[in-house]
Amino acid sequence: MTPTPSPVQVGTGPVSFADVIAVARDGAPVSLTAEALAAIEQARAVVDKLAEEPTPAYGISTGFGALATRHIPTEMRVQLQKSLVRSHAAGSGPEVEREVVRALMLLRLSTLATGHTGIRSETAQLIASLLSHGITPVVHEYGSLGCSGDLAPLSHCALALLGEGQVRDASGTLVPAAEALAAAGLAPVELGAKEGLALINGTDGMLGMLVMALTDLEVLMRTADIAAAMSVEGQLGTDRVFAPELQAIRPHPGQADSAANLVAILRDSGVVASHRGPDCNRVQDAYSLRCSPQVHGAARDTLAHCSTVATRELASAVDNPVVIEDRVESNGNFHGAPVAYVLDFAAIVAADVASISERRTDRFLDKARNHGLPPFLADDPGVDSGHMIAQYTQAAIVSELKRLAAPASVDSIPSSAMQEDHVSMGWSAARKLRRSVDGLTRVLAIEVLTAARALDLRVSTSSTNEMLPAPATAAVIALLRDRGVAGPGPDRHLSPEIETCVELVRSGAVLAAVESVIGDLR
């Protein structure tokens, strides 16, 4: 039985990457600290004071967006908040994944806890309660322009706080929000002044997806080094090009780390040692082998920048208007450009790392380039096709990743009667990045699968025991074989083996197998 994860406490400071993952993916319960509740109450007092004054204050006693010029009388302000949430909950398309919605809710709560939004404490507490009870509002694929934040997705979450709309309960069953709240012993809230805007005016959806993607890509970048090492080894490549003194003369930190990983993974490889002597007539390996650290390293450095931006965003209070000391000020911090740009950068990284992985894989299958291995690594070429179509699958995914690498953030369609005349499209960038991460996972899995088969063939066709793989790569091969992925032989149904390998890459099991032998990779 899976143990219940430790609660995540949301205070006035930023939540961490680990907090986001714990809540979004592991279902961790959430609570607000006393410090956060005090900050919320202090900001709320400012909003209540402004609501009583005759001078209009945006978001408190006015309409929204292009309708901000209308002053709303006191007796209509409760309806104003309901109307805002109901009208903005206008999403369409498939349901967004549970982990995305939970991340979105946590990050909105984190902004509310800063004391800059004017939310009431009971409203903030209800968000924490929904997360803790596993109640997930239904959010749809389309509806956010990434400015003024993720309006439609956040509005669907806010709608659940009113006891309206549809949610998934802890078991995943689709039920009316009012029914789920009642079953959990929770009561819906009636929003007060400013609370509607405070609940929906943030970049939390795109940021949550960025954090999760970066967490996944951290594992995939090290797994890419493993796959590359297996390909270098299986294709009788050299490890000398990865020497630290060669990396030092082009001092990119990601490149140095990737090269160091390759050296460590290939250490004590009988295959590499077998052609290291003076009899080897290979002058240079192909770019896809020799330049792996340069490509993987550039990817790492780009993702490091993305992580820096994400960390800054986690420390931000994104709302408009915001409570600053004893006043409320309009601002543009809801614009998603900082997040949208790095979401697009990360999609470029995923596409290019997948591209070089596919090229390494393809070299295994061509008898003119695989240095003595059978065509397509087939058992009986002609009768058997081996991994021929596995490479087709890689190629199809890489082609899709190239399309997904086209940036969403360069587009903008004006909205709200030209009041919101430049938007980030960050939500769209985040949605395509999730597909990119999945695609990269699959491409790397096929490279690992193919390289493992090639290394087994090297061993089986060698007349001596010298052609043994490195201990680290041997651990990956053993993992695959232990999980039911058979070694070389006549053709069989390949898709289940690919899916097994995909899950081993996605879960970090391939990385763990290597690190169990040689220690942590960089």
Automatic annotation (TrEMBL):
> Which Gene Ontology MF annotations are present?
histidine ammonia-lyase activity
Q: What Gene Ontology cellular component terms go with this record?
A: cytoplasm
Its annotated compartments are: Cytoplasm
Please give the biological process terms from Gene Ontology that the record holds: L-histidine catabolic process to glutamate and formamide; L-histidine catabolic process to glutamate and formate
Which organism does this sequence originate in?
A: Nocardioides marmorisolisilvae
Q: Which reaction does it catalyse?
A: L-histidine = trans-urocanate + NH4(+)
PROSITE patterns under this entry? PAL_HISTIDASE
What is the uppermost EC class here? lyase
Q: Which gene encodes it?
A: hutH
The pathway where this protein functions is: Amino-acid degradation; L-histidine degradation into L-glutamate; N-formimidoyl-L-glutamate from L-histidine: step 1/3
Q: List membrane-spanning regions.
A: none
Q: What is this protein called?
A: Histidine ammonia-lyase
Write the Enzyme Commission number(s) for this entry. Answer: 4.3.1.3
